Amino acid sequence: MNGKANKRNGVENGNFGEDLVLANSISNGEDLGPIVRLAFEMGRPGSLLQQLKTVMKKKDIEIEELCKTHYEEFILAVDELRGVLVDAEEMKGELSSDNFKLQEVGTALLSKVEELLELHSMKRNIMDAMTMSKNCIQILELCSKFNDYLLKGQFYPALKTINLIERKYLQNVPVKSIRMVIKRRIPVIKMHIEKNVNNQVSEWLEHVRCSAKSIGQTAIAHTASLRQRDEEMLERQRQAEEKSLSGHNDYFYPHDVEFIDEDCFLELDLTPLYRAYHVHTFLGALSQFQDYYYKNRTLQLNSDLQVPSSQPFVESYQSYFAQIAGHFITDERVLRTAGGLLVSDQIEIMWNMAVAKMVSVLNEQFVHMDSATHLLLVKDYVALFATTLRQYGYEVRPLVESLNNSQDKYHELLFEECRQQIANILRNDSYEQMVMKKDSDYENSILLFDLQTSDIVPAFPYVAPFSAMVPDACRAIRSFIKSSVDYLSYGGQINSYEIVMKHLDKLLIDVLNEALLRTIHSGNVDLSQAMQIAANIALLEKACDFFLRHAAQLCGIPMRTIERPDDTLTAKVVLRTSRDAAYMALLNLVNSKLDESMALTDKINWTSEEMPQEGNDYINEVIIYLGTVLSTAQKILPLDAIYRVGIGALEHISNTIISAFLSDNIKRFNVNAVIGINYDLKMLETFVDEKFHITGLSDMFKEESFRECLVEARQLINLLLSNQPETFMNPVIREKNYNSLDFKKVASICEKFKDSPDSIFGNLSNRNTKQNTRKKSMDMLKKRLKDFN
């Protein structure tokens, strides 16, 4: 029993606990859903309902107890509540009245508020519409501006406009379809612009290639004008220095220096290239455009570097180098002004390739050239080309070195041309004195080459001492000097004057002098020609000083520096030697002619029976011939040359007389023959004395006259006609009267000398004491000479 009671109490205690929890939850106002759900899940809804009833009973008991406890207070509260209810009813009436009034007033206000809200909504819609319209207007304006740029070909502003649309306005376009259309069109537009720009660049590349020759020619012509201006300034400066040294200090030459911007005369429009550069930079395709430009320019350069085969190089070299110059001038401008389109390394690669090709072309063409004029023209133009490109920062040293290496080839051609000119001059020369009829002839043939013998201009017509060969040869040599200086100028030659002197010496020695010697020794020169050649050489020797001054003037060397004794041409000495050779040739011709006239073994009766009363006939011919020679020589030869010819001829006459006595054809001769030769000698001595004074030689050569050239023959004749010929063996007398005679010659001649004629009548008529004495003396001389030998 107790156990069951305990069990029931336990159950009740458990139920009590659950009721307590449920009551607390209800008191706290908690949600009873979880408890109800748990009860149903556990299959105990009845228990839950029982618990709820139990809780309700407990609450009813609590209320009942509470009401019993506070009954009076509750009654009072109810009374108060009723009073409050009355007040509430009154207030409700008042509130209803107020509400009615408020409704009446609020109805009007509510309609106003609704209108206001509607207006606010409309305003917001209008503002949104205005914003959208504004965006649309802006994008449409930008689109219109873009179209204008595109139509005008202003692609860079067009790209900037389309980029602005894309970045700032495209997202604000309210109409999606329009926004998508614009978005799809932008890449197409960019491709269109890039294609058009590339087409323009292609056209520009073709145009600039066609214009490159004109650009190069203009730049090279400008360089040539600058060079000409510098030459004129240097010449004025040189003249000023010369005048200053001579004491004329009032000479003035301007130092005007004109700075000219090359861009002002090179018509080169790079606008398409600049536009393409900016467009490709904007599109982010600059590296591709740089490669495109560089490859195309390299291809163009390779084409320009090919020498045209349709015409000779001497006709196309200017176009060839002008085209290359225009190419690199254009690229230099692109490098300088087009940002990073070209880099210096790329230009250097192209330039080195071009230089290597040009050097190869020049070397090949120079080898095959056979005209110095053509080589000079090419060299001068290439030098201008190098100077022009140097001004634009290009390294031209290999080109200059190539030009310098052709110096020997050029001078070989120049020597050959001058050799032909001088050969033609000598071949066509008449070897007659030039006759000048007017001042211009005198200036062009004499004053121009400093060949005048006096500062006084002679009367016209004037007969010059030289033939036409001299001024013609001087012109050829002056032209050679000019050509040599022209070639050496602007080629990096520091000491061009020394080089010109070397080549000038070679020309005068190996060309002019050799041609003169060949003419002299050709055997086809007569006496007048030989005399004229000798005179010409003397004038050419004098002209060497002019050649030296002319070379110095062209090289810009002050005259004072070439007036030193050691600054002279070797050719001057060589020409002097050739002049001596011409004198010897002249003398040989004179002596040859004298030999024809003085065939003494045939023209003298060596054993004449009668004493002659005058000289032999040949001596008149000799004197006339000598007179003609000396008179002609006096007109064209200098006095020292006349003297040399005179003494040479007279010594030959003297030797001829001695040789006649020694000739094997003359077995014997007598005194009559000697007397006749004595007459000949006297006539000749009288003639040469007269000529010696007339020609003015007596004033220049006072120590030895023409007569003294005949001294050996004179002493021999005097010895043979002497009354005491044996005195020859007396040293004192011999030194005084016969110092030119040789013992052996005298011995041989005396052996042939027979003092009396062979005729019997002659012996009878001429035999006298004086002759006997002379004969004995001669026999004594013969004996003593024989003993001496």
From TrEMBL:
Keywords: Coiled coil, Cytoplasm, Exocytosis, Transport. One of its GO terms (biological process) is vesicle tethering involved in exocytosis. It is found in: Cytoplasm, Cytosol. Pfam families: EXOC6_Sec15_N, Sec15_C. It comes from the Eukaryota. The keyword Cytoplasm applies. One of its GO terms (cellular component) is exocyst. Residues 51-220 form the Exocyst complex component EXOC6/Sec15 N-terminal domain. Residues 399-752 form the Exocyst complex subunit EXOC6/Sec15 C-terminal domain. The keyword Membrane does not apply. PANTHER family: EXOCYST COMPLEX COMPONENT 6, SEC15. Component of the exocyst complex involved in the docking of exocytic vesicles with fusion sites on the plasma membrane during regulated or polarized secretion. Involved in polarized cell growth and organ morphogenesis. During cytokinesis, involved in cell plate initiation, cell plate maturation and formation of new primary cell wall. Belongs to the SEC15 family. This is Exocyst complex component. It comes from Trapa incisa.
